[in-house]
């Protein structure tokens, strides 16, 4: 079995008096494809934000590649190999597709040829042909592909894909799935947060389920999805 790349230990987060996450433990192994699911408002994005360093957790913490992440800012976590996509893609609207990838690479201070790496990233998401276009000229699925290129430009070891497929057609979901499978085959560990159940079940080797900020299940997807508490909470049966 491969080594544990990420460990969450008792992660908790409150917003004022509201507890959004409570005592969440999770282990992810190198190269794994994990689906993190749960109903709206169950804490999936809050978990991602705590992990990525967008805001601090109140309790517990994360260990990534054997090192604690507490106190590290988002960009420091990114440099250590942790990447995430945003539910709503946030391209730099005033920059071309190419510059959207090149600029963050240059900012990250990579000494490798950033122009070549930027082009390689666009090729990987099949956007090389649109390198000189502006984000507003892209379709929804192309924006999601650009978001994936941005997130993976620094060759992360772990990618959290937060609802990368919301609102896409069946065929477009397949495009994103194929990209994520390809990234994983190249060695990237992936946590998929998704409401498109077909995609989650096709992709995930394991499922973890959050309900009201607590992890209620974690295991083989078929077993997890047939658990009565998961069916009741998640599928509303
Ligand atoms: N910045 C914030 N301030 C106050 N409450 C917040 C904040 N961010 C999230 N919450 C609350 O925390 C809870 C968990 O939200 P979160 O976005 O993590 O859920 P989610 O599982 O990602 O939902 P969805 O599937 O709809 O994206 C929700 O009740 C939400 O309203």
From TrEMBL:
Q: Does the keyword ATP-binding apply?
A: yes
Q: Does the keyword field hold Transport? A: yes
Q: Recall the GO molecular function terms of this protein's record.
A: ATP binding; ATP hydrolysis activity
Q: Which residues form a coiled coil?
A: none
Question: What keywords sit in the KW lines?
Answer: ATP-binding, Nucleotide-binding, Transport
CDD domains in UniProt:
ABC_Mj1267_LivG_branched
Q: Which residues form the ABC transporter domain?
A: 6-237
The terms describing its cellular component in GO are: plasma membrane
SMART domains reported in the protein's UniProt record: AAA (SM00382)
Protein name, as recorded:
ABC transporter ATP-binding protein
Provide the species name: Roseomonas indoligenes
């Amino acid at each position: 079995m491969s080594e544990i790349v990420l460990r969450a230990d008792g992660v908790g987060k409150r917003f004022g008096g509201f507890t959004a996450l409570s005592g969440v433990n999770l282990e992810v192994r190198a190269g794994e494809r994990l689906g993190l699911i749960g109903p709206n408002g169950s804490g999936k994005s809050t978990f991602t934000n705590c992990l990525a360093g967008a805001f601090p957790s109140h309790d517990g913490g994360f260990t990534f590649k054997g090192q604690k992440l507490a106190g590290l800012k988002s960009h420091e976590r990114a440099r250590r190999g942790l990447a995430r996509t945003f539910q709503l893609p946030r391209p730099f609207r005033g920059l071309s597709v190419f510059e959207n990838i090149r600029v963050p690479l240059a900012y990250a201070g990579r000494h490798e040829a950033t122009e070549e790496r930027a082009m390689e990233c666009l090729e990987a998401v099949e956007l090389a042909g649109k390198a000189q276009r502006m984000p507003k000229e892209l379709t929804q699925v192309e924006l999601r592909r650009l978001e994936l290129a941005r997130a993976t430009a620094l060759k992360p070891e772990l990618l959290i894909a937060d609802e990368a497929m919301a609102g896409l057609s069946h065929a477009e979901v397949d495009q994103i799935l194929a990209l994520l499978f390809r990234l994983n085959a190249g060695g990237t560990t992936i946590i998929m947060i998704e409401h498109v159940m077909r995609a989650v079940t096709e992709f995930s080797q394991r499922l973890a389920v959050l309900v009201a900020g607590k992890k209620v299940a974690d295991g083989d997807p078929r077993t997890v999805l047939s658990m009565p508490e998961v069916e009741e909470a998640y599928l509303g049966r």
